[in-house]
């Protein structure tokens, strides 16, 4: 995502460096991908919904499992606002089982009736009820609410509207990390989706996957989506969208903006198609056949990324001629490569996707506005970064989100500093090795979760050189303190 409260040059996010053991996930085998069949009915007026999901979970952990863990993120007091996601019932292989949220109420462990051997599957059915955060006057009622799970006058945003399988990492198990007030929350693995959404007539639904059908019935309008190789599935419903569509390589880009913001929509399409073309060439082809750019009210964030769909804050759409608007679009679209396709732990190592997305937007400016512009942006980043590190010597680009005291520091060190780090690597090894390494990283880790070690090792291997000084300077805190 991108923090918007601080203006153009302030971005944010963070990480830590820490583990340097490589824990790359086993490569994806299509037959062992988990599958979600989701059916959700939305009451557009009240901002509530009911849903059911049938999840086929394949145990690819390598160990027998006695428990499968889901995450119900909207129950966090952070990021999602005062909305809720209540689990009504759970069935495993058709038999009812008891399940209750634990931790910060975003963790849902489900005990299996019998251990699930490796390479075996379990069918888990969950019914649930959701209530979105209500923005009655166009703004949130609590300060940490991004607006990603919110009901506003003309849009409903439904981030994490369904119980999603927690990420499992051999050695550390299921991800039960509490949601914090800074950065992003969802670390998850690739799955396939069939999603049906019912809304009242006149409401349009946009989803992460490809829309495969729209049917009318007495119950309303039914939208059907299919999502292949998706790390998450986002939905937005709105009753006041104008749309534009254009192809960028093999990816169809569509904007859903308020009719009055047609200039922003036109700029988003132009920046979006150019950004995708540049990234296709430099990193490898976009993994998704369609990406939607959707305007919604947001707070604290200028944009937020999801697989196949990005959000742009309505407050930035009034004047799309600013450089920052192009940065929002090119940053969020870069997350289709860094986050959606190549996954990472967004809490422990948030810099992995945020530094890459931020630096991708610098590359976008370099290729479109010219090197003078990109150099000027990098100079601003460097200043923000250096000031923040001087104030917080216990933090570095690779610090985890929970270490950061606020959005501004997170942005200055993880986003701005992360982009400076990548630029330093590029200067040290040259364009040819730098872009070869990013392409290789994308090729190797697409549809998997990568770690910092994976990215750094790819740079080192590609250049055949020692980059430890650069790694240490940017990624390690000058002062180490215990948490
Ligand atoms: Zn981002």
Spell out the blueprint of helices and strands.
Blueprint lengths: L1 E2 L30 E10 L4 E11 L6 E7 L12 E9 L2 E3 L9 E10 L4 E11 L1 E2 L15 E2 L3 E3 L6 E2 L2 E2 L3 E2 L16 E9 L4 E4 L2 E8 L2 E11 L4 E4 L3 E7 L2 E7 L4 H22 L6 E7 L4 E6 L2 E5 L9 H12 L16 H18 L2 H21 L15 H39 L6 H12 L4 H8 L8
Parallel strand pairs: 2-15, 9-10, 21-22, 22-24
Antiparallel strand pairs: 1-23, 2-3, 3-8, 4-7, 4-12, 5-6, 5-8, 11-19, 13-14, 15-18, 16-19, 17-18, 20-21, 23-24
Helix pairs in contact: 1-2, 1-3, 2-3, 3-4, 3-5, 4-5, 5-6, 5-7
Bound molecules: zinc ion.
Zinc ion binds next to helix 3.
Give an account of the 3D structure:
The protein is α+β, with helices and mostly antiparallel strands and 483 residues long. Among the domains are: 29-189, Sandwich (Immunoglobulin-like), CATH 2.60.40; 351-475, Neutral Protease Domain 2 (Neutral Protease, domain 2). It contains seven helices and 24 strands. It has helices at 262-283, 323-334, 351-368, 371-391, 407-445, 452-463, 468-475; strands spanning 2-3, 34-43, 48-58, 65-71, 84-92, 95-97, 107-116, 121-131, 133-134, 150-151, 155-157, 164-165, 168-169, 173-174, 191-199, 204-207, 210-217, 220-230, 235-238, 242-248, 251-257, 290-296, 301-306, 309-313. The strands form six sheets. It has an eight-stranded mixed beta sheet, with no helix packed on it. The structure holds zinc ion. Residues 1-2, 305, 331, 335, 354, 357 line the site of zinc ion.
């Amino acid at each position: 995502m991108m923090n918007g409260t601080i203006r153009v040059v302030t971005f944010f996010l963070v990480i830590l460096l820490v583990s340097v053991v490589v824990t790359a996930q086993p490569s994806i085998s299509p037959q062992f991908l988990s599958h979600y069949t989701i059916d959700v009915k939305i009451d557009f007026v009240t901002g509530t919904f009911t849903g059911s999901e049938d999840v086929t979970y394949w145990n690819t952990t390598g160990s027998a499992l006695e428990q499968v863990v889901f995450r119900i993120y909207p129950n966090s007091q952070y990021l999602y606002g005062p909305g809720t996601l209540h689990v009504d019932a759970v069935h495993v292989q058709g038999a009812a089982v008891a399940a209750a949220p634990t931790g910060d109420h975003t963790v849902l462990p489900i005990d299996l009736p019998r251990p699930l051997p490796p390479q075996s599957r379990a069918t888990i059915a969950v019914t649930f009820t959701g209530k979105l955060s209500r923005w009655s006057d166009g703004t949130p009622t609590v300060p940490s609410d991004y607006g990603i799970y919110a009901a506003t006058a003309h849009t409903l945003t439904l981030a994490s509207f369904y119980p999603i399988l927690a990420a499992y990492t051999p050695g550390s198990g299921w991800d039960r990390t509490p949601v914090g007030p800074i950065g992003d929350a969802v670390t998850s693995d690739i799955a396939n989706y069939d999603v049906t959404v019912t809304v009242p007539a006149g409401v349009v639904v946009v989803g992460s996957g490809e829309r495969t059908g729209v049917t009318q019935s007495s119950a309303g309008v039914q939208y059907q989506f299919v999502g292949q190789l998706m790390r998450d599935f986002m939905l937005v419903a709105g009753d006041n969208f104008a749309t534009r569509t254009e192809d960028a390589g093999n990816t169809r880009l569509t904007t859903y903006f308020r009719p009055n913001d047609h200039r922003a929509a036109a700029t988003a399409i132009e920046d979006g198609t150019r950004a995708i073309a540049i990234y296709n060439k430099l990193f490898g082809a976009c993994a998704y056949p369609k990406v939607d750019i959707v305007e919604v009210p947001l707070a604290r964030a200028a944009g937020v990324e999801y697989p196949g769909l990005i959000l742009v804050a309505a407050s930035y759409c009034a004047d799309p001629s600013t450089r920052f608007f192009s940065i929002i679009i090119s940053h969020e679209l870069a997350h289709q490569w860094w986050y959606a396709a190549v996954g990472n732990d967004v809490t422990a190592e948030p810099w992995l996707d945020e530094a890459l997305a931020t630096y991708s937007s610098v590359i976008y400016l370099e290729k479109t506005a010219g090197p003078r512009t990109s150099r000027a942006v990098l100079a601003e980043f460097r200043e923000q970064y250096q000031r923040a590190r001087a104030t917080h010597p216990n933090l570095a680009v690779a610090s985890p989100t929970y270490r950061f005291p606020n959005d501004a520091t997170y942005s200055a060190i993880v986003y701005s500093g992360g982009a400076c780090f990548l630029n330093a690597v590029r200067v040290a090894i040259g364009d040819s090795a730098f872009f070869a390494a990013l392409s290789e990283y994308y090729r190797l880790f697409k549809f998997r979760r990568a770690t910092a070690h994976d990215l750094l090792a790819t740079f080192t291997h590609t250049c055949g050189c020692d980059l430890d000084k650069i790694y240490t300077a940017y990624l390690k805190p000058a002062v180490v303190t215990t948490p």
